[in-house]
Amino acid sequence: MRLLLPQCERQRAAYGIKEYTLAKLFIEIFCLNKNGTDAQKLLNYRSPKSASNEAGDFASVAYFVLKNRSPETGSLTVHDINHYLDNIATNHAEKKERYLNELKHDLLHLLRNTSALEQKWLIRMILKDMKFGIGENSILKEFHRDAKDLYNVTNNLEKVCCSLRDPSVSLNEIEITLFSPFRPMLAEMATPDQVEQLTGGTPFVIETKYDGERLQLHKHGSSYMYFSRGYGGFDCSATYGTTPSDGSLTPYIHRSFKPGVKNCILDGEIVIYSNKLKCIVSKGENPEIQAMAPDGDYAPCFCAFDILLLNDQVLSNLPLKDRVHYIKEAFISIENKIRYTKQITATSNNEVTEELNYAIDNRLEGIVIKMSDSVYKPNKRKEGGWFKVKPEYIEDLMTELDLLIIGGYYGEGRRSNVISHFLLGLASRSPDGDPCRFYSFCKVGSGYTLKELYELSGKLGDHWKTFDSKNPPIYYMMGNSRKELPDVWIEPSKSVIVQVKASEIIRSNFFALPHTLRFPRLAQGRLATKRSIPSEDENSPKKQRIQRERNITVAPHFRPTDVSSVVKVSEIFKGKEICVVFSLLEKKI
Predict the structure, then answer these.
(1) CA distances (Å), 430 to each of 300, 376, 434, 504, 514, in order?
(2) Of the candidates 99, 83, 67, 91, which has an alpha carbon nearest to the alpha carbon of residue 14?
(3) Per the record, which residues fall in region Disordered (predicted)?
(4) Per residue in 231-277, pLDDT tens?
(5) 20 to 30 A Cα–Cα from 39, which one of 89, 259, 305, 570?
(6) Dihedral through CA 328, CA 332, CA 338, CA 341, nearest 10?
């Protein structure tokens, strides 16, 4: 099961390997010419020019490169595969100096003893992206009818497999347990004018939504564990501290828990607190939370908004109005280290609007609406009774900008073989008023349909050029972040201007400009609507032409077809109706 659902497993540490690393290792192991066709296919697996029909799927590209270099049949068992994957994960976790050499040794053994088809699936296991075409819930349900529910509250694939080995045995009660990460409850999108209808006119709680990262805090005595949101619940305990003597958070919050608290589980948000400004600040404008020192200008602060366990009593099945009282029984708030999330009871849309305006004025992410009688349902979003309201959900509150497409990124899955994300830039004008240079500003990948994307590809497809970081185009200034460099670029005169909406403009060091857009997306129907910079031909003066008088007549495309010269030879189609069917997706790009 751990090989079928590698993205769900947390018992095995991370491999520390992505597509580019694997490509370089395969080139070295098989002694491929770095500039040869096969090596370029691996290195540029997203590019349709290099990888043809398999573009975007590294495992499939590798299969075609390795199939003539691999055994016809493999000899390894499932146990063998798990053994070598354990070795790779362990060596990476221990950060051994010889990690790369050990990795090459393990990969070489795997490649020598597996067929090309087996290697294809092995690569997908390592990348933790199986591309089955079915979701994890479908696989878990096939294993056992209670497997999905148990996984949602434990995030432990091994426990699911061991506890539900017998398909005839059901779990009577599935509970959240200490030091076992669960998949957090989520909220649906909503606008202020929808809240009364969604809550049925009953009282609800309005919470501040901070701009941070979802985090679970598990405590038992002096032992602590922290888990972030995501597949399997990523263990952040080493960063924040497993005891009161280590980490960037635990030493500062341990004494805030009340004397009678033996154990507890808190759900909340880890945010950035500015010791200089004495307030919570946006994570988009500041360093990574997990990389901050506790005594620096910025430090991590935990904002608790729910409690799931207190002194061995599971609270998740209690209504929210009862659970919130237990939070203040667990700890005492410390402004810059651990605090209660602001919560008020309300009944109307007007109160929602007031709180959203307060959040906007204070540069917060938004607000969350929770029905007072809602119980905590792990991994539940729809019909759970929680709703999030953000400024970007309201069209009138969005920032709009016209930006030039200066680069592109190849997509994966349904968007493979096509540029699916775009790097956008702002112009710097020369003294004569014409744009002379463009600065990278943001990256956008949403707000348009697949049909619109294909239409744009048809317009720009012939003008894309491969981006070379060692010899970048003179028109553009790029940022220092390697992952933001595009796969391809386009000359300004061949590009288009698009209208982009975003919740706000924030500081950033990823692009050439010191600011970027937060949550950018293309305005609906605004993909490839404007031609950008006029080309030299467009700037040249047009010759004057003498206008001749002409008779006004019906436009040619509105005239009936002239059939005067057609000779009838048969009436085979008389009385029949002919329908011509075509697909927009069959148009050439």
Answers:
(1) 44, 58, 6, 28, 20
(2) 91
(3) 530-551
(4) 557 889 999 999 999 999 999 999 999 999 999 999 999 999 988 88
(5) 89
(6) 30
Beta strands at 366-371 and 204-209: parallel, antiparallel or unpaired = antiparallel
Rounded distance between C-alpha atoms, residue 212 and residue 487, angstroms: 30
Specify whether the CB–CB gap between 583 and 450 falls below 8 A: no
Q: How far apart are CA 280 and CA 182, in angstroms?
A: 27
User: Are 496 and 457 in contact, with CB atoms under 8 Å apart?
Assistant: no
- Distance in angstroms (rounded) separating the CA atoms of residues 282 and 273: 9
Provide the residue type at 146 as one letter.
D
| Pairing assessment for the beta strands 435-444 and 515-518 based on DSSP bridges | unpaired
204 contacts 370 by C-beta, under 8 angstroms:
yes
pLDDT number for residue 387: 97
> Across the chain, how many H-helices and E-strands are there?
17, 23
- Per residue in 23-51, pLDDT (tens digit) is 999 999 889 998 899 999 999 888 877 66
41, 120, 209, 337: the catalytic one is 209
Q: What angle do CA 209, 211, 213 make, to 5 degrees?
A: 100
Q: Which letter does DSSP use for residue 7 in this model?
A: G
Task: State the residue for tokens 């939370």.
Answer: 289
3-state helix vs strand vs coil in the chain, percent to 5: 30, 20, 45
Pairing state of beta strands 476-477 and 435-444? parallel
Q: CA–CA separation, 166 vs 506, rounded Å?
A: 53
Q: How far apart are CA 271 and CA 411, in angstroms?
A: 32
For residue 8, the 8-state DSSP code is G
**Beta carbons within 10 angstroms of residue 239's beta carbon:** 18
Provide the token pair at 435: 């744009």
Spatial contact of 438 and 406, defined as CB atoms under 8 Å apart: yes
Percentage of the chain modeled with pLDDT above 70: 86
Q: What H or E segment, with its residue span, contains residue 239?
A: helix 237-240
Six-digit token string for 417: 């073989």
Concerning whether 501 is annotated as a catalytic residue, the answer is no
Element (H, E) at 38: helix 37-43
Distance from C-alpha of 303 to C-alpha of 90, rounded to nearest angstrom: 33
Cβ–Cβ under 8 Å, residues 189 and 41: no
